[in-house]
Amino acid sequence: MFFLTKKLPKIVIKYARFLDPVFIAYVKSHKKWENIEIPNEEVVLERIKNYRKAWRPKERIILNGLTEASGLSFKRNTLDVYIVSLNPRQFSSPIVIKSGFESEDFVDVLTHELIHALLTDNIYLVDDRPYWIKKFPEETQTTYNHILLSAIQTYIYLDVLKDQERLQRNIKRDEQHSNNDYLKAWEIVDKMGGYKEVLKIFQQIKKEGCLS
């Protein structure tokens, strides 16, 4: 769409053997999760095999799609993806994802975290958040962090994977968050005229440094 880089990182999906007890202890320490079922290591390892199987055929096409949509390139040759039995939320630095996802949902969640990683790799070159803060001053930092991300992920679903259902499933998953910050990002993308318009704005920000 905008730019294609040939530098794509290798995504290494692995069991976080030493991190896992930390996350399990954290979850157990919260009363609201005291009855949650914790999968044993054998189950987690089997799920990781399924995650790798689901991810590998899509890895290159998704990574290429991320760089095409953003015009950015990854700065790391390898990105480790740590799988733990369970955790309250997924995050991208380092990338840690719980084992409770179905395989195709895992692909979508990993794509989400990889977009975060790509934008973080390039934050010293371009940062779109000041533009969104000025345009929508009433929103939260979480929403600002996810406007461009939502546009890029929509590009992956519709232009790369050509799967409208994945997009709707992702939005539905975001409805389950305890706040509306993620849904607000999707709404802003729509309000701006759709994901292609948001991506164009980002390219202008990247080229000009900032937009009023």
Characterization of this structure:
The protein has 212 residues and is of the alpha/beta class. It folds into 2 domains: 10-121, no CATH class; 129-208, no CATH class. Helices cover 57% and strands 9% of the residues. It is built from 8 helices and 4 strands; from the N terminus they run βααβββαααααα. Helix 5 (141-160) runs antiparallel to helix 6 (164-174). Residues 1-5 have low confidence and may be disordered.
From the structure above, extract its key features:
four-stranded mixed sheet; disordered N terminus; 212 residues; 8 helices; alpha/beta; single chain
Produce a short descriptive summary.
The protein folds into 2 domains: 10-121, no CATH class; 129-208, no CATH class.
* Count of discrete domains: 2
Radius of gyration: 17 Å
Strand fraction band? 5-15%
Choose one word for the global shape: globular
